[in-house]
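Marked as duplicate of an earlier ticket. Keeping the data here for the record.
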Amino acid sequence: MLNFIKNKTNLSILIFYFIFSFSSLLFILLAEYNNNKTPTLFLKQFVFYAVGFGIIYLLQKIPITYIEKFSIAFYLFALVLLVGIFLVPPTLAPIVNGARSWYNFRIFTLQPSEFGKIATVAMVSMLIKEKSFKDNTDTIKLLKLALVISIPFILVAKENDLGNGLFFIFLFLGLVFLVCNKGKTLFRIYSVVIAGLAIIILAALYFPRLLSLVGLKSYQLNRILSWLNPEAYKLDYSYQITQVLNEVKLGGLTGTFVKNKNYIDEQFNDFIFSIIAKNFGFIGAAIFLFIFFIFILRLFNIVKKCEQGNYSYYFILLSICSFCFSFFINIFSTLSIIPVIGISMPFISYGGSSLIANSILFGIIVKIHATIQEEYMEDEYYYDNYEEDYDTVQYEEDYDPLEPVYENNNNRYYEEEPQQFRRSKRKR
């Protein structure tokens, strides 16, 4: 394992995992300190990170081709976990905060929606890389994607897990941009989405009962109303976010370590960004955002090295979507830019299911990057051998330099551009 960490290729990505782990443990410890709690969650998160890193290490033993093949099985297994929530007795899957979305095994709890998210990412990546999928019309493509995404979405929505349910909608909208070839299709779908959001906000303001009729829960409606008019609900539904914003304001430019005036529930999870903003101020929050920005750029650099349109290419892109969705929804909820949704910040918020799920994504990305570097090294080896062989080739006077030259001993051939015969399957 030590050699795995010391490897420069791996370390260039693992460094972010280590930074996030240190930051997460520090912020959770501060959340417990600010709320006068014993640091038990800090110790549990340390164990979760140890398990997560162990999973990352084990994933390096599995070739990417096998991971791709297992995508369907992983997706089906995640669906079984989601369906199981409704089949097991309430003692094993109790209702917590109005949502029945957790398995309680006493020793640990498990949130299947987190694994449903990454399983859907893997499944969709395998689907859209197929040539048969790319040859379809935009309508057929979207119907296939809607089928794959809608199944876990419906199950998660049935659990009343709004935050993770919204991820599947976000994923579908991102895929619309990624796979559609016609601008009209993009315009129509995004126009419908914007119009739908406008209707929901207007209905919440003037016709709240209509939203209840279409399936919106009363607590979800109150979240929207308290976001639109926080003063009217400051003693109940907007009380928590009001306390969070007050603590954020105390941070100022450089931060403060004064304890909270009032207890803030879930500050170590849904409102973890308030800890950063309060204890480290605007400067600390800006540095933290910059680190995450560099992390995303690093992932995009890996995407550039992948063959456009293959499994690894789409998997990393969709993983970036997953990281960014959870990251910014968590921050926007904390700052009341959007209604409080209740979703963990990846790698930072307390929680084993979220951390393990994101560690799986992270581990596969590390494996993809390591595979690409191995292929580059193999390319260099074959390129060096090409130069040695190329010097020994005898040309005739009438030889066309643009025509390939064949060797009789092993039937290999080379052109003027040796890079066109890379051993790896990646495009240049």
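See parent ticket for discussion. The longest helix spans residues 352-391.
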